[in-house]
Amino acid sequence: MKVSLYVAVAIALIVGMSLSAQLDAQALSEAGVTLSGAITKQSGTAAPKADVSNRNATAEVTREGPPPEETNRKALEQRAGKDAAKLVLRSVPSEALIYIDGKFVGSTPLMLIVPPGKYKVEMRGQRDGFGERLVGLLPNETQQLALTLELRYPAKVTVR
What we know:
With 160 residues, the protein is of the alpha+beta class. The protein folds into two domains: 2-50, no CATH class; 68-151, Carboxypeptidase-like, regulatory domain (Immunoglobulin-like, Sandwich), CATH 2.60.40. It is 26% helix and 32% strand. The protein has helices at residues 2-30, 68-80, and strands at 39-40, 49-50, 85-92, 97-100, 103-107, 110-114, 117-124, 129-137, 142-148, 150-151. Strands 5-4-7-8-10 form a five-stranded antiparallel sheet. The protein has a three-stranded mixed sheet with strand order 6-3-9. Strands 1-2 form a two-stranded antiparallel sheet. The protein is flat. The termini are far apart.
């Protein structure tokens, strides 16, 4: 009885991995992502097949155009106009990823030229550090923001 249960679980895992790989490959293919390596697309209407026997297979994802942070940063700068404000961003530790209103714009230290207004600035560190602040900028204002990143989830919890 135990052996047949183990065999059934093993078969379910193998079928699940194969189906998952096929669905992932199909989703990437529909999104226009080019893959090279173990995952290949077959001709016809059948879903792409994946070779799951090679656990060390790698897939290379190619994308065209500038990176997203450059695109988002340029979009902010284009909207800035003649009354542009400057926002100088720093973090401790440095090299934090910066998100303005939820869009990735680069890493610290960074100077942004933005239109006057209110912005939600988030910084995410390399090791779970996090900081956020709401910033209001007036026309032609330069504002510096330095955040000390703190752990979102404490390493120790004290129960009394």
